[in-house]
């Protein structure tokens, strides 16, 4: 059975609610899930098809599928009831052709026999285990920062600004921050490539927007689309209703414009919409003070808003304005995940280029124009009966220019404060041995507490995401009084000093002075994972335009441009080998990769990243051929390259050890597998926590291997 998810997903999204078309789309999707063995999801789509008016003439087929799912899931009482209902329907009003009727009767008899056999079993089989959401909670929450551990404290000084420090000695793996995004917006994904012919007329490419809930970011194939647009999709009716009540009632008719203006403009609007539920009277006064335009500060606008439960960086005491010690905290010094904290994230208005500020202002102005034009229906949610009931009586402030100023502030904040929400994407079917995984940017969010962490090119923390929740763990031991540091992207294992400094200056407006940047840079050689080596003696080449052998007794020299050209050709050859791997031409892929390996040995050191990639691909190919020993040998070489570049305790090292454990497990190399599993668990638990998918898989492998070990015989025999 072939399941084309793009056609099914887009069919559901582009059909009108409560029509036969959408009911058939849900029914067809339920059939696909049934053949994929996802019976719970199949049942959910059957319910959705029924709720949208599935045709009476097709009901027997749907009811039979429902009964099949229930029997397979062991829900025998419900299955018996469904079978009985189907028999009654057929007896009362037979509408099927004779041949179809006979097939249906045979299937019903088979199902009834199946139910009876299961009911008569003396043993009760346990229900399939479902993986619940697991995560470690904070051991002790900070009174000052509710989303952070009591092991950290919020401080400020003129040079560092706001930052977090350790209040005690912290061990590797300790959970320091667990914070849900104040707001997150799913990245729309790459635009499909244009093709000639029929494909150019039918866009059937699946993006992240088709496979993840637009509210909670949960991965799902069984999406529930918005009734009013074909873009927004959700994992459940509850998520759809929540999104509608909080923001989608305004965003829905602006979907095309928001996609055009970009994700930062979309986030700025959503943050401003969420601010309605936290009331922003003090925001208006603060903005009026900043922009010095009294014309937009109308008394009526403040009367429309409730009294704040907290202050935005200021407090009125005896008629005087008293600044709180740290911006974003309330009058009691508490820093929470709320609009107050978001508003006080630095916009760096003076640092942005005039061109950037102009484009942001233009985007906000265009959006405000559209919102103003649409306000007539936004203020009257009852105009369209099919819309979910909104919990908001008004959407836009009459002073739309105040909304525009707030949105512009948030757009400027995002360049330095937006957080990429990432996930691991796996390619290849579950049945295929050749699968690849890569970290992708799933969404963009704002995390007020995470934004408190300063940058280091050699951070002492690691960040991971579960849906919209960010968790930050110590990646190494942190001493009491030491600053908690996060990497903004430029990391010492990925970029040279000059490149890191340039990126941090252009995006974050500061000069990095972390230990990694203070370390004396090897401008003439560079790290071994990005260097070239001498063809004659294998020493690292040094220099700028012309490279000379680092071995003084060797006179070899060559131009850098020549070696760069050779490296580009080699990478192209490796890319061709990857295509052969994906297409299942394994023997050809191995020969291509062995040729690449031979070519690399003549000018690249053994620790070069490309050399590691070649060994990794060879490990994949040999695994697919069932040669686990050769696969493990090449993967161990790849692992050495990863260790040189990223370090023995890095998340990258943990993922490579996980792969090696799988190879040893499949090859039944029990001692090697158990040893590698132990190493992988130690590294991954620090970065991902003890309840991650990888740790769970490693524990399953360990349990299976321990059962295969021979039982030791005692002295008595």
Automatic annotation (TrEMBL):
Gene Ontology cellular component terms for the protein in this record: cytoplasm; nucleus
One Pfam short name: SET
GO biological process, one term: heart development
Catalytic activity: L-lysyl-[protein] + S-adenosyl-L-methionine = N(6)-methyl-L-lysyl-[protein] + S-adenosyl-L-homocysteine + H(+)
Subcellular location: Cytoplasm; Nucleus
Domain MYND-type: from-to ranges: 213-252
Matches recorded under InterPro entries: SET-MYND_domain_protein, SET_dom, SET_dom_sf, SMYD4_SET, TPR-like_helical_dom_sf, Znf_MYND
SUPFAM superfamilies: HIT/MYND zinc finger-like, SET domain, TPR-like
Chief location bin: cytoplasm
GO molecular function: histone deacetylase binding; protein-lysine N-methyltransferase activity; zinc ion binding
Start and end residues of each SET domain: 150-489
Keyword tags: Cytoplasm, Metal-binding, Methyltransferase, Nucleus, S-adenosyl-L-methionine, Transferase, Zinc, Zinc-finger
Keyword S-adenosyl-L-methionine: yes
Stated role: Protein-lysine N-methyltransferase. Monomethylates PRMT5, modulating its transcriptional activity. May also act as a histone methyltransferase. Plays a critical role in cardiac development. Acts as a key epigenetic regulator of gene expression during cardiac development via its dual activities as a methyltransferase and negative regulator of HDAC1.
Database matches in PANTHER family: SET AND MYND DOMAIN-CONTAINING PROTEIN 4
Name this polypeptide is given: Protein-lysine N-methyltransferase SMYD4
Lineage: Eukaryota, Metazoa, Chordata, Craniata, Vertebrata
